[in-house]
Amino acid sequence: MTKSENQRLHYFIDKQEILELINRYCQAADRHDPEALRALYHTDALDDHGAFFKGLAMDFIDKLPEIQAPMEILHHNVTTVNIEIDGDYAEGEVYILAFHKAAGPDGSIDVLIGGRYFDKYEKRDGKWKFAHRAVVTDWVHIQDPSAVNLEHPFIAGSHIGRPGADDPSYTFFKLIKRQTP
């Protein structure tokens, strides 16, 4: 293999590891799994979730149980991903669609957000993790009251996703491991 081919191979391996990091973030957030999220950030990483939080990512993760408590459904979907890598440093602009069904004092509402993550990643000790993540909202659609109906006869008998260890994925998979509370 030539030096150029070897460099390209390492570039694509690094890019794939970063893509897996991004996907694991969505999985951990949707399952309300703070310990899985904690493993994705460097200990000195920053997180900027706007009005919800701005500061050290570990402090944000500590506050997540409170922030996520009213979230009956979280469903993050990654769409367009642009990543640039320079050695052990990388940046990503990650487009997302994030659905939230949140309980409120007058009943549940649906919030669909189209946005982006502005990410900075660092590879330390051979492992890519978030060094800084900022959340940008491009648009939002709110349905009040919620239009989600998990009792409709059309989905009778379906497996229904849930936050935490009650999600069907915890018992279905052998290879895809989950943190347990």
Automatic annotation (TrEMBL):
Domain SnoaL-like: 14-133
Top-rank lineage group of the source organism: Bacteria
Any Pfam family: SnoaL_4
UniProt protein name: Nuclear transport factor 2 family protein
Organism expressing this protein natively: Zhongshania arctica
